[in-house]
Design goal:
81 residues, globular, 2 domains, 3-stranded antiparallel beta sheet, alpha+beta
């Protein structure tokens, strides 16, 4: 099952989309934030720094994420601007 993730900096909200049951991918992960100007749609985890890569990898594996991991994730996003 394919997953796509996005972060809206304006709303401070994490979004996701999953592959539809008929196999068609839904690329509208950021559709709830179409009026926002700061939406990051993530690619492969290997392209990002360790705190971001760790969270994306865990999300794709459906593993739990700790509060501290999410804090580091947000900090890394802020620093990479």
């Amino acid at each position: 099952m394919s997953r796509e993730f996005a972060w809206c900096k304006d709303c401070n909200e994490f979004s996701y989309a999953i592959e539809a049951k008929n196999g068609a991918e839904r690329k509208q992960v950021a559709s709830n934030h179409h009026n926002c100007g700061n939406v990051i749609t993530f690619g492969l985890p290997d392209k990002y720094s360790p705190p971001i890569r760790n969270v994306l990898t865990k999300l794709k594996a459906m593993m739990p994420i700790s509060d501290n991991e999410m804090i580091l994730f947000k900090l890394a996003l802020a620093l990479e601007e």
